[in-house]
Amino acid sequence: MFITGKTLQDLEFPQVLETVKSFALSEFGAMEIERLKPIEDRDELVRNLQETDEYLTSFYNNNRIPNHGFQDISKAILYLGIENTYIEPKVLLDIVSNVSTIQELTQFLENFKLLYPLLYDTTCDLPKHFEIISLITTRIDKFAEVADNASPDLKNIRREKREIESQISASFDRALQRYVKLDYLDDIRESVVDGKRVLAVQAMHRKKVLGNILGTSKTGSIIFILPQTTQKLDQDLQFLTLKEQEEVIRILKEITDALRPYKEVLITYQTYLTALDVIGAKAKYAVAIDGILPKIASQKRIYLQEAYHPLLLLINRRKGIPTIPQTIELNESQQIIVISGPNAGGKSITLKTIGLLQVMLQSGLMIPVNENSEMSFFDTILTDIGDNQSIENQLSTYSYRLKNMRIFLKKCNAHTLFLIDEFGTGSDPELGGALAEVFLEEFYLKKAFGVITTHYTNIKALADHLEHATNANMQFDKRSLQPLYELVTGQAGSSFTFEVAQQNGIPFNLINRAKKRVSGSKVRLDKTISKLQIERNKLQQQTVSLEEEKEKASEQAQTLEEKQNRIQEKLEQFQILYDTQQKMLQYGRVVNEMSNRYFQTDNKKQLMTEFQNWIQGEKVKFTKKNPPIKRTKEEKKEILKVQEIKEKEVKTIEKEVLKEVEVIREIKQEEAREKALIIENYQYTIGDIVRLKDGWAQGTIEKVEKKKLLINYGTFTTLALKDQVELVRKGR
Predict the structure, then answer these.
(1) Cα gap 223→191, rounded to integer Å
(2) Is the pLDDT of residue 52 over 70?
(3) What does the pLDDT read at residue 417?
(4) Strands of 196-202's sheet, edge to edge?
(5) Which H or E run contains 336?
(6) In 3D, which of 321, 295, 324, 319 has the Cα closest to residue 309?
(7) Does domain 682-729 have CATH number 2.30.30.30?
(8) Mean pLDDT of 390-402
(9) What's the pLDDT tens digit per position in 156-202?
(10) Burial degree of 489 (CB within 10 A; 0-12, 13-18, 19+)
């Protein structure tokens, strides 16, 4: 693979990585992101992209990947490789945190391996040594202290320390009370020096207080004395403190020694968490730029639909400015695109967008394009963008570009993407243009894919002549002389040189003089291109208008078809209803005739015979239309089984529904009781809207007495007992 650091700089890839870094949870992740570059191995690249895409999907479902922030335990890992060293309790808890994170992640991805198969695969080879957690937490508490029960000796030492501390406190309090009564102490009475309680003795009484002087105030008016009665106890406490420290260090060495066999495991965990941090940062960056994983083409192709330059997109969002996307395609039949048009029209940014998105994709990053976009990978990406004048090597812009072209000619092949800005500039237009033509023909013959921007007419003409090359232009509004930042392929663009000059205040007579110095054919060609571009814009607008009308007509046709289908359905339903009613009328007439004969003759036997004959005839007709399906005994048994299962399911559901109904009924009854209790205990006030319990008319309370309310109904007022009314709405 040949993608140089200069190419990445030209395409502003490091600036993209700076943004991606901001989403990392750790310094290790940020450093790995800083080192990101295009991946050579295709399988590794595809897997890398798919892992990021899997992580990205977790933001849009209810099974988000757990937090995987982790602590830097590099120093602890270093100590594990050095004998007779120990790890501090806080760092031990950092190890616990990292191992717990690994445990949580592996369990989560095990549970959701169907949803995140690739991320799950990354955990399969991880060593599962989660006993590290208990090895530490059984002796180190959550406050990063060695626990009392870490060893019997430590437990005894700390118990003795607490007893002596209690004795020191009692002894000091007695001395304090004694010297307070003697009025030897300052108003503050006591202080703390070197972690010890001391008496704040007035300087004039210092010889009267027995003990060690540990310090004085700034003015010298207060002497801080450790009472003699606590000195011996304090010495015992210091001795026990030293013993405690020795025991703590011994325990920490034990824990560290127990961890030494897990050194490689902890390195593996930290490496895995760093890799996952990088994946997570790339996924978060994708969310920020609306990035996706486009389709990966099996053949050589770039199809960017609604593609955005990610840096420009974020800058414009902060400013509240819309960003115009570009759609561009490179394939076997359109391998080179020559973009022309006025300066500041967006040619360079379009060129950089193509290159940057290609580099981002080949580095495992999602890109801001439409989901229908399709891309392949290139072994070589070559760029010549910007003014590359080299002061260090004393090269002019043109010399530098020629040196660049030499590299292009050497590296260019069928697996190359080249991007050249302002192709052919830096030398005499005719001579430099001729040389540029030759270079372009060479790139074309080597079947390289490429995009170039140019103002040179001969390059535009060559692109029009070559079968698998095409011209494109950045749209420009000739009336307002403002760029539209829209790329259109199939036609070269005018530079609008004189129009832009006029817009920028250059006197008209100077522009005319300049026009006279240019050959008439060139001016006419530029005008022709300009006119064609304007006509193309008009045709494009008409096409859009026709498409809109076509869509409207299609929608109307669809609406009419739906109405017709609904009418047809209704007609069919009416026909079925009519046929059923006619049949019922026919049945009614037959039964009516039989009834009348029976009323006249009173012959039951004749009635039953006629009825049975008629029913038998109807049955024959029905059987002909609906012949019975013959089933074997096994089929009948199977049908019965299915029916029984369905009946059981219905009964089960019925029981469950009845339980839920009962619960809901109880809740509603409880709510009704609570509501009734609230109403019963409600204290009516003037302005409340009420009604009589056995009526519907609503009135407003004007006066409240002990048990009665004066209610105004608008046209009349009445007195009612509080028990007879119910609240409709509280007054304001």
Answers:
(1) 10
(2) yes
(3) 95
(4) 185-193, 196-202, 222-227, 211-216
(5) strand 336-340
(6) 324
(7) yes
(8) 58
(9) 999 999 999 899 899 899 989 988 898 888 888 889 888 888 999 99
(10) middle
Binning pLDDT at 50, 70 and 90, where does residue 521 land? very low
User: What would the CATH number be for the domain defined by 10-147+258-291?
Assistant: 1.10.1420.10
Cα distances (Å, whole numbers) of residue 203 to 185, 199, 228, 279, 413: 9, 12, 17, 69, 94
Which range scores top for mean pLDDT: 13-17, 677-681, 682-686, 720-724? 13-17
CATH homologous superfamily of 302-517: P-loop containing nucleotide triphosphate hydrolases (3.40.50.300)
How far is Cα 599 from Cα 576, in angstroms, rounded to an integer? 34
Measured in whole angstroms, the distance separating CA 145 from the mean position of its chain's CA atoms is 39
CA distances (Å), 596 to each of 313, 602, 653, in order? 91, 10, 51
Token pair 């940057």 is at which residue?
356
Burial class (CB in 10 A: 0-12, 13-18, 19+), 592: exposed
Q: Percent of the chain, pLDDT > 90?
A: 43
Task: Map out the domains of the chain as residue ranges.
Answer: 10-147+258-291, 153-243, 302-517, 682-729
Residue 107 CA to residue 120 CA, distance in Å, equals 10
**655-683 pLDDT tens trace:** 777 777 788 888 888 877 777 777 667 78
Q: Tell me the C-alpha distance between 675 and 680, whole Å.
A: 8
Amino acid present at 168: I
CB 369 within 8 A of CB 304: yes
User: In which region does residue 144 sit, left (phi positive, over 0), alpha (psi from -120 to 50) or beta (all else)?
Assistant: left
| Count of positions (residues) in the chain | 732
Distance set, CA 353 to CA 12, 304, 318, 328, 408 (Å): 10, 10, 19, 10, 20
User: Tell me, what's the pLDDT at 367?
Assistant: 96
Which secondary structure element, helix H or strand E, spans residue 327, and what is its range?
A: strand 326-330
Distance CA 479, CA 4 (A): 43
CA distances (Å), origin 475, targets 231, 324, 485, 500: 92, 12, 6, 14
| Token representation of residue 212 | 């060690």
d(CA 177, CA 170): 11
Bigger pLDDT: 94 vs 231 = 94
For every residue of 610-627, DSSP letters joined together read HHHHHHHHHHHHHHHHSP
* Integer Cα distance of 290 and 308 in angstroms: 10
Residues 542 and 536: their CA atoms lie apart, in Å, by 10
Instruction: Find out whether 21 and 35 touch, Cβ atoms under 8 Å.
Output: no
For residue 214, the SS3 value is strand
Chain position carrying tokens 């590099």 = 74
Cβ–Cβ < 8 Å for 119, 282? no
SS3 74: helix
